[in-house]
Amino acid sequence: MALSQGIMAASVVDCCSRSWSALALGQNVGPIRWISLIVTKTRKVLTIQASTAEEPASFGPSSQKLWTPKLVTNAVATKQDAPATTGAKGGHELLLFEALREGLEEEMERDPTVVVMGEDVGHYGGSYKVTKGFAEKFGDWRALDTPIAENSFTGMAVGAAMTGLRPIIEGMNMGFLLLAYNQISNNCGMLHYTSGGQFTIPCVIRGPGGVGRQLGAEHSQRLESYFQSVPGLQMVACSTPYNAKGLMKAAIRSNNPVILFEHVLLYNLKETIPDEEYICCLEEAEMVRPGKDVTILTYSRMRHYVLQAAKTLVSKGYDPEIIDIRSLKPFDMYTIGNSVKKTHKVLIVEECMRTGGIGASLRAAIMENFFDYLDAPIGCLSSQDVPTPYSGPLEELTVVQPHQIISAVEKMLSE
Amino acid sequence: MASSVAARKLLRIARKPWSPSAALSVKRSGSKYFVEAEDPDLCRTGLGGSLFFRLFSSLGASHDSLLHCNYEENAEQRAAFSGATIAYTEDLQFVSKLLPSRIPCFRVLSELGKELGKDVPQLGRTMAQKMYEQMVTLQVLDNVFYNAQRQGRFAFYATCTGEEALNIACAAALNDTDTVFPQYREPGVLLWRGYGLQEFADHCIGNYQGHGKGRQMSIHYGSSKLHYFTISSVLGTQIPHAVGAGYSLKMENEKRCSVTFFGEGAASEGDFHGGVNFAACLEVPVLFICRNNGWAISTPASQQYRGDGIAGRGQAYGVRSIRVDGNDALAVFSAVKAARQLAVDNNEPVLLELMTYRVGHHSTSDDSTKYRDVAEIRHWTEKRDGVARFRNWLESKGWWNKTMEEQFRWYVRAEVIACLAAAEAKNKPPLADLFSDVYDSVPQNLAEQETQVREAVRKCPEVYPTDVPL
């Protein structure tokens, strides 16, 4: 790859990892594992493949070598200010759950060690139809229906991952995965470390979470708050069909355990996505709308509420910069930082509860790194510290609404 | 409809992709069709209820005949529920809490090491001697390391005193490539597979050469090379891991078995029940080996369960089980070998309950004389020790004697002490190992945190240990 292209790639994706950017510039960064990095801004794909001579001790059966570099030599990184455009030429329209299914299906076709397990994921096709048709196509064994024991089937996936498979665990609802907390934190997150790097756990844990429509307290949980402290886990949240498919594929290919948070009310979101293969960077935030007045950081369903509020804000003459943080652990401090340096004001809009949510951690991280660039305290709109009620109007009161976002921005910008 | 056409149609409807073993045949009697099943409990796949409904509706039978259908001619009236096919009874009677007698305990040697019965495994001198030497090594290792911990040379230790025979016999009966998911009282399996004394010492000391890179507690060994999966402290979590490994091994079709060890206390954990149930439903080759050693720290087995121990649970899950005298090395060897063959040949789980006794304390953080009789401990040490029993058997065969015993013990003890001293002299893992392996590569936030730690060390070097390379 030409050095000039390497420099362009490095500048766009420098946020992801020190070792990645150094690699793009042709430096030796010592022993690194498989890396694939994709430029997402223009929907064109630039892949750099890296590896070491030795692979992790227990990485898969001997038939591994499945990373095929796909190089688009005329890929051009857009300027940092430009938004990720959604108006692609060609492509096909689908709903978010279909995008998840497409990503999952492509990965299962590509790599025979990828398996899905969970309740009703087999012949029933999944409670939200993400695995519809998989049992017929891949067989009962690779689309495995499990008995109802979340801790046990998550443990099963950990064991399978340590012996060479790449399992995807589907929680019927994210809240049920609280039963699997022990396996997720003590084993998924920690076994790679405590084994001295001998065993890897390349699994994906996914499922619908967030506040739905009158689903009651136990079905309306935001587990990203609870899991964010667990060392060894990566967490991403999808919000559009495009990033749902891209993040699903990236999560499956990652050697780390990744939790992919989907939102129960976004499954029927429609979008046109590219026909060609692409993956999204797991550690990267998405620039939804560039602006200069205020940085609004959000993720998952709140992104759409923020966009709705933005319409009104723009018509009132404000210019908010909207970033979908996507990567909940670790945060993409590069994209966020550049935005803060530009706007000097930050508003976080989330669905987590006030105490111990993603917003709380993000606030701390921004304050620690970019205090000098802030003109005002970081605002944070989140849900109250209450269980989500069943009653419709009460439930609506616990979720941040667009008018609250508008008021908060106006207040912030009037001071 | 011609009978052969109907029969073929019935068979086609009945055949499901995931129960190829369901053998069905169709018989006709007048206007009624009878589907005979090899296994009347096909309904675990939901087949029975839905099958009958479809069969009879496709043949135009009335709803009444659905209720009175039979699997076999002349059988009692049975009810087809989707959970099971069961016979009716008009007697109000509860099933008793326990079977009339407990599952008996399989043994091959008497307490004094005399051969009993006809199933004595033919081990051969080399194998038997190797087994015994490894049992002794384990005893000496435990003894030296326990005392070293007491002297403050490392933080924590737990012995497997009283269970050495069990450890080595299980290890010897398995294949070296079988995946093992231990609890923490099975270092014998590692020893058997070639984990060196120096490696044991390095891990417990937590120096840079330990396979865990100083991150996991003492005795929580792990070796991917020897297919011994790193121990996690939380009880029972390894049980579903073993099932997942069994699932993976079944895909490989390589005739390897997945094995997990746990105590009778850990068998109370939810993961045990989930894991065994899963293994039965998925039909994977897993051995569930329970070391029933009578004590879970201070909780005796009598307070741990009310049923017939752990072996008694097997049938409830549809899993073959056996109870074995865990201090009889030959019996354990036979049973584990046979169980392994069953598991691998039939792709099914097997549950083994090895009855033994935890002679030592739970760990160095425990003093068991506080909750149990010293006389009890002495009884098991002097009269029912598995290593002594095996030694008696060896001596009766002329394969061992007192001189060999003295010499071997002296030699192993010197080795272990030397390895421990060598381990202590080595450096601890470097600072960078605090941050590596959390993920596959070190992310930005951890790199920053490492920089902060290094800065702190640079400012106050006198506060930081000198044996941690920077």
From TrEMBL, chain A:
Q: Which reaction does it catalyse?
A: N(6)-[(R)-lipoyl]-L-lysyl-[protein] + pyruvate + H(+) = N(6)-[(R)-S(8)-acetyldihydrolipoyl]-L-lysyl-[protein] + CO2
User: CDD domains from the xrefs?
Assistant: TPP_PYR_E1-PDHc-beta_like
Q: Which cofactor does it need?
A: thiamine diphosphate
Primary enzyme class:
oxidoreductase
Q: Which SMART domains match?
A: Transket_pyr
Any one Gene Ontology MF annotation carried by this entry is: pyruvate dehydrogenase (acetyl-transferring) activity
Transketolase-like pyrimidine-binding domain mapped to chain residues: 94-269
Highest taxon of source: Eukaryota
Q: Is Oxidoreductase there in the keyword field? A: yes
* Record EC number: 1.2.4.1
- Which keywords, in A-to-Z order, does the entry hold? Oxidoreductase, Pyruvate, Thiamine pyrophosphate
Task: Please tell me whether the keyword Oxidoreductase is annotated for this protein.
Answer: yes
Matching NCBIfam families? PRK09212.1
Known role: The pyruvate dehydrogenase complex catalyzes the overall conversion of pyruvate to acetyl-CoA and CO(2). It contains multiple copies of three enzymatic components: pyruvate dehydrogenase (E1), dihydrolipoamide acetyltransferase (E2) and lipoamide dehydrogenase (E3).
Protein name, as recorded: pyruvate dehydrogenase (acetyl-transferring)
Q: From which organism does this entry originate? A: Riccia sorocarpa
UniProtKB/TrEMBL annotation, chain B:
Question: Which GO BP annotation is one of this protein's?
Answer: branched-chain amino acid catabolic process
Catalytic activity line of the entry:
N(6)-[(R)-lipoyl]-L-lysyl-[protein] + 3-methyl-2-oxobutanoate + H(+) = N(6)-[(R)-S(8)-2-methylpropanoyldihydrolipoyl]-L-lysyl-[protein] + CO2
What are its cofactors? thiamine diphosphate
**Where is it mainly found?**
mitochondrion
Report the GO molecular function annotations.
branched-chain 2-oxo acid dehydrogenase activity; metal ion binding
Alphabetical list of SUPFAM superfamilies matching this protein = Thiamin diphosphate-binding fold (THDP-binding)
- Which UniProt keywords are present, listed alphabetically? Metal-binding, Mitochondrion, Oxidoreductase, Potassium, Transit peptide
**What Enzyme Commission number(s) apply to this enzyme?**
1.2.4.4
Q: Where in the cell is it found?
A: Mitochondrion matrix
Q: Which Gene3D superfamilies match?
A: 3.40.50.970
Start and end of every Dehydrogenase E1 component domain? 133-430
GO-annotated cellular components: mitochondrial matrix
Supply the CDD domains for this chain: TPP_E1_PDC_ADC_BCADC (cd02000)
Q: List the PANTHER family hit by this protein, alphabetically.
A: 2-OXOISOVALERATE DEHYDROGENASE SUBUNIT ALPHA, MITOCHONDRIAL
This protein's assembly is summarised as: Heterotetramer of alpha and beta chains.
Q: Which family does it belong to?
A: Belongs to the BCKDHA family.
> What is the name of this protein?
3-methyl-2-oxobutanoate dehydrogenase (2-methylpropanoyl-transferring)
